[in-house]
């Protein structure tokens, strides 16, 4: 049904027609007409954040935990520039986000008007696509296309910049229809390539699945198909930080996470395999380590919906462009049709080798009765929350890596962390977005004290909307990950990696009307965690942990997968000059 | 072939070669990129090259299909085979890009560029400049008592050669359009 209405009304109507139930935003002069329309309706819930960066991260948390795109509404100028970090974060982690920004009226664009910024110019490199809409009649089409672009193919953030006069003007609303734009990414993989991969799987002696966030982005069906394929073949599987939960941590073939702080057995399997099947993963530098020593003996297949991911970092032998779900379905079909063959004998030997690596027990740490070891805190958190309907977000740093190592994920969409951009300040607002989408779930942000402070203003949001998000802060009073690198690379000269003048987190929580819990004794930890879980409201949990713990295992930069540092290793001088120039 | 939509079998053939043999030899490729003619599209393409550190030797752009809203950007770039493949794949990701053609691979192709050159001089040098212009089929499009402006079209190498010859004869300024290129045949 087409109707005459203002641009502002169109925005709200288009969001409704796209099935949007929640918008994260912050008002300002250039979006007031849209805020007026939001005021006049009850279908879409608006979550008022305390900073626009928080809005985008909250939308990311919402998107990643639901599989639906997240929607953000902010004003022009500073509203838009504050969204840039979130957009970049979503771009690197392929999260579908639609950001609507207000803009000064079209006749003032280019005049350095109040709160004018070249928003499409600024956000061009940090969005999948963006639009400046100068004509109200074009607005509904652009909004519908924006949802298509954000979610089709490799997902990503998009932005629509809407001048204020376009919001006020009348135009003809068009409801959504199937996108007919030329942007229709290929989802089916080439059968010839798929057959080649299946043939390689039939004879492989040391195969490994290396999966990533693309499996989660492809949807729950992809994770299901992955589980079927892995369990039917018995091939071991590892995953990137972004892909945790696609295959269950309790699954028989699970190796654990790979990469810089990945598990020994996972990295060794990657290094020594003879067939690597990369699925929705992108050979990030945190995964490959030294590229010229990366898995030297393997044939490599790469399934990805984005052709530019293929051969970008590592040359592969069997490239398959397509959506993970579609391709996995075809792999299973072809593999079954050809008689479900694997090199059973050899694979059994490979599993035995992996068992030996597992025995190294790479996550072992020195326990303590006096101080809470961060690893211990996470083990207890895992034990006490694993049976809950649980979602985990994290900030960025050592705590993030420990969370990935010590928490187990049984399902996709349960783990949201800033992988590609490594954005401190992501986890708290993300946990808010997750809790909005899953009001009854137990949502925990595993945080470092420094990261958490970066978006601490969102405590106001949590309090206002009575969101029972649990902020589990592993407080080492250090920028721990920075401190670790300074220890390894810069002669233990701890330049500005202290968290000085920290607030009293309990009082801080109370100041916002939330609950604060302080815990510093391992003996009290279980009770304190239970108190956190059982409190019906936002909790700030200040867990004072060992200050100088390092996160191991670690592949130092510039080193290969089989040159990992394990727990108690001598760490000084392990990174050579060439490695030190890398990040 | 539309953006990101890679033709069946394209991973083995066509402009998108996903099974390349990588070498370190720098290659020069001419790419034809058909884009939606909308504001900012050129910025997207140029931003890709600057943001990812790719080379642009020359770039031309103009609308080629008014009703279809299509512009054609012709880019001459250099890089190792791996970089060239990345450039094409990255161009293909841009939502406003409809088609990416590697004329160097899909060729043979015809490349033409137009240049205008100002040559200032008198006496013998002036006569020699005119004589050489004749050999290169460059036209005189403006002249004063002590200067010529020549117009020349041709492959970039021909324009290089002509300007090299004009330099000692009083070349003061050159303006070049950059390369326009089309595949031969149908
Ligand atoms: C916005 C931002 N600034 C700086 C960094 C660099 N950085 C990475 S980890 C880290 C320290 C984080 O400290 P904390 O949150 O306390 O976590 P910890 O490592 O101590 O567990 C820093 C500064 C970053 N990732 N993001
Ligand atoms: Mg810390």
What key phrases describe this protein's structure?
heterodimer; A: 583 residues; alpha/beta; Rossmann fold; 3 domains; six-stranded parallel β-sheet; 20 strands; 38% helix; 17% strand; globular; B: 186 residues; alpha+beta; Alpha-Beta Plaits; five-stranded antiparallel β-sheet; elongated; binds thiamine diphosphate; binds magnesium ion
Describe the 3D structure.
The complex is a heterodimer of chains A (583) and B (186). Chain A has 583 residues and is an alpha/beta fold. Chain A folds into three domains: 3-173, Thiamin diphosphate (ThDP)-binding fold, Pyr/PP domains (Rossmann fold, 3-Layer(aba) Sandwich); 191-358, Rossmann fold (3-Layer(aba) Sandwich); 374-544, Thiamin diphosphate (ThDP)-binding fold, Pyr/PP domains (Rossmann fold, 3-Layer(aba) Sandwich), CATH 3.40.50.970. Chain A contains 24 helices and 20 strands. In chain A, strands 3-2-4-5-7-6 form a six-stranded parallel beta sheet, sandwiched between helices. In chain A, helix 13 (285-288) links the parallel strand 12 and strand 13 (299-304). The mean pLDDT of chain A is 96. Chain B has helices at 41-51, 81-93, 103-106, 124-135, 156-166; strands at 27-36, 58-65, 70-79, 97-102, 109-120, 139-144, 147-154, 171-176, 180-183. Chain B folds into two domains: 23-106, ACT domain (Alpha-Beta Plaits); 110-183, ACT-like. Chain A, domain 2 (Alpha-Beta Plaits). Chain B is built from five helices and nine strands, in the order βαββαβαβαββαββ. Chain B is an alpha+beta fold and 186 residues long. The longest helix of chain B has 13 residues, at 81-93. Helices cover 27% and strands 38% of the residues of chain B. The interface between A and B is medium-sized, with 29 and 32 residues. The site of magnesium ion has 8 residues of chain A, from helix 19.
